[in-house]
Amino acid sequence: MRDIEEFEKIIDYKFNNRNLLIQALSHSSYANEKKKSRTSNERLEFLGDSVLSIVVSKYLFEHLTNIAEGDLTKLRASLVCEKSLYVFAKEIHLGDFILLGKGEENTGGRERISILADAFEAVIAAIFLDGGFEAVTKHILRFIPDDIQHQKKPVFNDFKTILQEIVQKNPEEKVEYVLVGEEGPDHDKRFVVQVCLNSNVIGKGLGKSKKEAEQMAAKEALELMGYEAQ
Which member of 49, 130, 158, 212 is catalytic? Predict the structure, then answer.
């Protein structure tokens, strides 16, 4: 693993409490090997997801004043989706600094989309807890494309958002994603998710992360509805 100080220089933020950063970089496989001496980044990922959404929402609301709510929602979804976070993580060489267990290390975990995306969110949470909203906003906004005001299409398709927009036209309808299975060893796990409409299964997806599996389930549901998901 490359030096923590080097990572701080890359992200242009110096931590007051470096333990937060170390936790953000600690994948569950590494934490499990270290047992009680190390906590994984999963809780920080949970917080970082919300902080990221708030910062991006605020930025889009303030800068794209002529864009309708529906288009803002799609644009935000494309910026905070797993594929985008993976791209952002690569920009700061995050994979070089993540702490991994031996299994993940030996099977290409440093390049795995889900691991990098989750760690990116965990780092966001660590900065937020260490330096507050202003510091984390500065960090996040460096990844917003310069031409965002001219973007008419999302960076990446977010099938969950598209499906939700279709379904919410009927207020009585409810969409739910259910994890129904896991396959493979810990270092190469696949998740199986079903998407249900009022308890009826309308799509099924397989992915290397729960988020990816949910996207694939939504994509299948859209295709069954006649929507040409790309």
Answer: 49
